[in-house]
Amino acid sequence: MNADPPAIAANPWTAHSAEVVEVVPEITGVATYHLRLTNPAVRSTYSCCPGQFNMLYLPGVGEAAISVSGYNPTTESWLHTVRTAGGVTQTLAGLGCGGKLALRGPFGSSWPIDALAGRDVVFVAGGIGLAPLRPAIDWALNHAAKFGRLTLLYGARSPATILYADQLDTWRQSGLHVEVTVDRTDAGWMGRVGVVTLLVDRLRSFDPHATGMLTCGPDVMMKYVVRSALERGLKSTNVWVSLERNMQCAVGFCGHCQLGPAFVCKDGPVFRYDRMASYLDTEAL
Ligand SMILES: Cc1cc2nc3c(=O)[nH]c(=O)nc-3n(C[C@H](O)[C@H](O)[C@H](O)COP(=O)(O)OP(=O)(O)OC[C@H]3O[C@@H](n4cnc5c(N)ncnc54)[C@H](O)[C@@H]3O)c2cc1C
Q1: How far away, in angstroms, is 84 Cα from ligand 1 center?
Q2: What mean pLDDT is predicted for residues 217-238?
Q3: Mean pLDDT score across all residues of the chain
Q4: For ligand 1, is residue 66 a contact (CB within 6 Å)?
Q5: What does the alpha-carbon distance between residue 183 and residue 14 come to, in Å, rounded to a whole number?
Q6: What is the pTM of this model?
Q7: Residue 233: predicted pLDDT
Q8: Burial class for 255, CB neighbours closer than 10 Å (0-12, 13-18, 19+)
Q9: Helical (H) or strand (E) element with 135
Q10: Which atom from ligand 1 is nearest to the alpha carbon of 247?
């Protein structure tokens, strides 16, 4: 996976056939699908950047926007971590290994991870919002010498809904400072309880003038995360959010995902916070 600038699909309407080569159950209702493009020529040229998404197409059912959550070089497959919601994602969940589908993409803007070289980077994720951040975290850890301190603040509803639990440990061993909090605890949980915003408030070794923040999760979570970060002195020009809006075409034609002057599909999903702040405060929250 590359860093900036975002990759662009050669023809945004072309749906490439793909095969499910592995399914990794994550948490209840969420699995990661390893999708291998069937055509070797397409497979060798397809590329995408952390934060971008594909439109997954299930014939006879429809399409859904799904972020790329990683790459498996062994099987040359692109990972998509999906929560089962409606028709497309339910059909995907029923495919199993060897199942066939198609994808269009990649689409959208990417995390500006390379532009943050020389700074501390704080990743803040809520729930399944960790999925679009995972490639950016992996990329930063693979180029750790370029960055200052790398931190992940992650909030889940309960211990049972912590996504990529094993990977959090691997990341810690790779030098990522990881803090996790849950909204609701259970008997075995020894960690923090409370909203992820509290982790932003308590962040140690935080230099707002030398830090970039990338955040993804429910809108209301991002609103309060950003508010806390700004109160601690971070400039809104150093914060990026990834927005999710119902979309259909992914290329800015249909208008479903318009937010203020922007189309989330082509101008986002990753936006610098100051550019969208007024629309987030009014229309989206
Ligand atoms: C840029 C982008 C990236 C995304 N990445 C992921 C991802 O990595 N993993 C993942 O599981 N999902 C992701 N989504 C959400 C996913 O596209 C929707 O859940 C999609 O609707 C699922 O399709 P479906 O046919 O299964 O369900 P649908 O039948 O389309 O929807 C089920 C229900 O969810 C509602 N809904 C649909 N889309 C949205 C939305 N964007 N916001 C709020 N409600 C909605 C519908 O109105 C309906 O009530 C992403 C969305 C966007 C815009």
Answers
A1: 9
A2: 92
A3: 91
A4: yes
A5: 42
A6: 0.93
A7: 92
A8: exposed
A9: helix 130-142
A10: 53
Distances (CA, A) of 48 to 110, 134, 198, 222: 9, 14, 33, 24
Mutate to test the pocket of ligand 1, among 89, 222, 258, 283 (most ligand atoms within 8 A of CB): 89
What's 75's DSSP letter?
Answer: T
Ligand 1 centroid, distance to 273 Cα (angstroms)? 22
State mean pLDDT over 14-23: 95
Q: What is the pLDDT of residues 53-101, one digit of tens each?
A: 999 999 999 999 999 999 999 999 999 999 999 999 999 999 999 999 9
Residue indicated by tokens 């790329």: 68
Report the interhelical angle of 165-173 vs 130-142 (nearest 10°). Answer: 20
Whether 52 lines ligand 1, by a CB cut-off of 6 Å, is: no
User: Ligand 1 within 6 A of 272 CB?
Assistant: no
Q: In whole angstroms, what is the distance from residue 185 CA to residue 235 CA?
A: 33
Which residue from 56, 58, 81, 244 has its CB within 8 A of the most atoms of ligand 1, so it is best to mutate?
Answer: 244
Contacts of 27 (CB under 8 A, 6+ apart): 160, 161, 162, 163
58: its two tokens: 């299930």
pLDDT per position as a tens digit, 172-226: 999 999 999 999 988 788 899 999 999 998 888 889 999 999 999 998 899 999 9
Buried b (16+ CB within 10 A) or exposed e, 144-182: eeebbbbbbbbbbeebebbbbeebbeebeeeebbbbbbb
CA distance 18 to 68: 14
